[in-house]
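Step 1: inspect the first sequence and its tokens.
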Amino acid sequence: MLRTLLTRCLAVSLALTLAGCGSGGGGGGGGGAMTDVSLVLTDAASDELSVFEVDVQNVVFTKLNGNTVSVLPRTTRVDFLELESLGELITGVSLEAGTYKQVTLELDFAAARVVIAGHTTTATVRDARGNAITGVVPVTIDFPAGRRPIVRVGRNNLFVFDLALDQSVVVDEPGNVVTFTPVWTVEIDPASPKPIATTGVLQRVDVNNLAFVVERRATDDALIAEFTVETGGSTVFQLGGDVQVGAPGLGALVAHIGERVFVQGTLDATRRVLRAVAVESGAGVPGNGQDWVLGHVVARTGGAGVDATLQVLGRSLDVSAGTRRFNTVHTVNVSHADTKVLRRGAGNRLDSDAINIGQLVWVFGDLSTTTLDATAATGVVRLLRTSIFGIANGAPAGDTLTVDVTRFDLRDVSAFDFDVSGSVQADPDAYTIDVTGVSTTGITTGSKLRVFGWIAGVDASGADATASSIVDRTTTASVMLVQWSTPRLGVLDALAASLSVDVSAASVRFVGDGFGSTFLTASPTPTVLPLTTVGLYSIVENGSIETNTSFPTFRQSVLSRAATVPVFRVAAFGTFDAGTQAFSALTVTVVLD
């Protein structure tokens, strides 16, 4: 899904820190000394995919003198679509201090699962030439002189690799095909990184020092790295569906040694230590033996105070059979008395009354075909942050925003039945959202909004949902995609201070904002220009990425290269004027054949 424009502006400003990281000469400070490096993966997700799960096979750093070192010699599996609001810590190593000129990542698609929203089978993934991708895709990021990162001694150097799926894929929904041309950005030591999470096996617990150790394991169960996790008085522990905070929770964690654990927190800037905000283990955590269903509650029978049957539209895993299902309606049975209901990161336990229509849930229990029994004491329902897409019926009044809902995350509102055993929970045409404490500046009648938050419980009084943040997509957060089925010469040209794009022969040519698409026409000629004085502008060719922060420099480079190398795709993120077909971009990626 698209990020807010503000977040993208922040990403660009952080990427600019690379410009001051290296002088481009010598080996960089450090003189061969070793220091800590942590690698985090994240994503700017797609509005068209529900799963993008691949193996990250290797990450190799290259120093100025040409020496290389692999910092991820074993394979780890990542679903990038789960990383829109998180960064996943995949390894921590000791690396020689100094200046680095290049980094190469390898994605292995041999066992990949890529699923288009609304499909029940995995998609065929193809490259720019139309060939199926079934093996390793290497991507090399070159850091130009003056923008080379220095790995420094005396600190934990944090590298954040962002796979921009919104600019990396073009989806053929009827054909169930995804064309993938990877676009990566790299940030080092960002000032305001996303919350960081990792998952692994709980190895040991040090109650006296309020810490524990997690082992990140490869797909073959071999050790990738050990992470020390420090806890505090406000750390929330959700263990087997029960909730404790602070030292009592850490004490209870001892019983879960050897099990899978999920940790969310922040990385220490000086040591390779993760400071935990929330910890999950036992029942209700993937990998601990339970079947699960992940999706949206589209219907429910059984009102407040009684056992309920949910219809959950989404995906599932039957552990014993190894069966996965996608975009399937599952029947989920929950007990009001026994099923443990949790909101991720919250320090209190709820009951099944908190599960209402529209809510995104991850339910753990025993699965038989498409029926999940979560009524036992080990049954866990985890409430996850939900996106509500809607058109504002007017400006907020008294901290209440009313919208005409179009979808919940990727699910069209028509899939949801708001009648729960005779009690209508909400009117999707006039859906009310509590926006207390959330900025609503500029929201008016017709504003296209993506609201992040939580759905109110069954028969709860007050608003239908509570917002944690809002993105106004009326004028921001648009994506431009132009692609040629056969890469072509002569489709890019200079026009004043912009870049013109000839879309007359393009097979894909639209601008999307998450609510719909605008088809780009040949006249007036679509143009791309910078939104701000600095941005992030990339050229991808043969798996190598050139990145600029100056639009004039980027424009000169891309026009020079596109004069002799055909263009496959132009993608951009920013704002769009439909009348002039001018796209003001914060980020632009041009893929050459």
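Step 2: inspect the second sequence and its tokens, then contrast the two.
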Amino acid sequence: MIRILINQLGYDSEDTKKAILQATNQEEPLSSTFTILEEQTGDVVYQGEIVKSEPVARWNKGDFYVMQFSDFQPGKGKNYGHSYKIKVNTTAGTVESSPFEIYGNVLEYTTLSSVMYYFKSQRVTGEYEQIDRQISFKGPREGIVDMHGGWNDATGDIGVHLTHQTVSGFFNVQQGNLAVFTFYKLIELIEQSSWEYYAIFNRRILDEAAYGANWLMRRRAPSGSFFKAGPLRLPDAYELSEVTRKCGFEYKNTFGEGRKPVPQNERKITDESYEASLRGGGGYAVAALAMAARYPYASQEYSSQEYLNAARESFLYLEENNERYTKDGKWNMMDEYCALEACIELYRTSREFGFMRRARKYAEKIIGHYMPRTDCSGYLSHDETDRPFFSPAEEGAPVMALLHYAEIEKQASRKEEAIATAEKVMRFLLEMTNRVPNPFGYAREYTQDRDGNRKEQFFFPHNSDDAPWWQGENARILSLAAAARLLMDITKDLELAKALQNFADDQVAWVLGLNPYDSCMMINRGRHNPEYFFQYQYDFIGVPCGIVNGITSAIDDDEGIEYVTSPLDNPQIDDNWRWAEEWLPHAIWYLHAMGLKKR
């Protein structure tokens, strides 16, 4: 097989542009150049160099030849109606890509509105909404609460979460709360943009943000925290009933001394098991409510003052009591960057200097996690040790928190230190990504497994502290794309800014089809979308413009690669959720990364 892999949804005129020739049967190009044709006329409009890549890890997906054409900028701006094809002469004959468009803001015009509609289609309505208005608790906690609202969090379950996958305390994933935060952040980015369509798009975002803010207010627990896990349909019951729709909990003491697993019958369930720590969803929930106070909208059920009061009260409570809600009774960097985002937004809305002082404190703590590897690059540690911070879904979040802090900080030395730390962390990421053959530019990660082994690799490790949980990580690479785009607009290092742009564009292109499977991972867009199946039944229908988990390492080899899109790919797999299930964080970080282009 020989084919040309592209970003199937198009290229922005001013972005990084590349395609890859994939040859799996010893085919090869006949010359060292490729051509770009105008599709309608067949005219040659560009010619570029073909560069062969060395083999990538143990992917075993053939030979890859990189074709760069970033300097091909046919008509900056809209330039509608022009599509192009790439042509290569090979030993197997002439190969052409499918048509693609190049014009200004092509991805924003063609995807952002659709992704926002994905969220609207995932709103919890009907029977589940009715149950959620008077929902009880799974486990020993008594009482009834109104928690209706939010978004179904995945194709294969109908949970509504602030976080989950917190077995180890290392990999809390921000979910519905991050969606609300991102919607409001997107509105701010739109206000800074020159893209005229944003004025129309703004209303759609405000509608979804207000819906989410109302939901977060209802999720506030009497303590001042937030209910984090659920409502959810329990995994042992797939029929709708009041019995299976409950507010969930997570055990507090999953690991004991030496991080040895605690037997399930010895794990504790208290009221705190149902509620969020700062890293368990509380930090971004506070930030979102503080932002809601700045953007009144017709469908909001509370006043701006009520949103702000709730955000303030919840933050002050969680700051004082956070250890009661964490897995190990300690703070770690995830709590700190979630707290920092909360303080930033509370300060922006209230202008209370106490929140600036707190923001400085948490920024200093994050900066204190910096571990140098070279004179000008290094990584952030997860806790008080030098354990590297890495995440399956939001690895870019601490860098973004530091840069958001730099936007409000008036003291030059503090501002510069935050930016410098972000630069060093992103330089290390770029170095790690580029130090091995990597024609797609996929973001590599510095990991530590449950046995303490550290490694630079392409995908989330199977033997993590949350094993056997692992999945595709489109959210992770899109969060890093967002961090890269935010930093490239701030840094004074022009060489670093250019490298960050290339890196960010590579991550977005991977999701949209420029990957070894020629698969667009935004459902109903592009081609070769994965189909989600459960026990060989296509029970879970993909929602248009949601983004699936994505590509992973091989099932039995962290250096390999895997992507199960149908039962024919691997007959031993009867549920391909690891690869083909849609999940809110992927779409959330896509929106954030695209908003930060600010053309």
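Step 3: confirm your contrast with the notes below.
The longest helix spans residues 412-434. The first strand starts at residue 2 and ends at 5.
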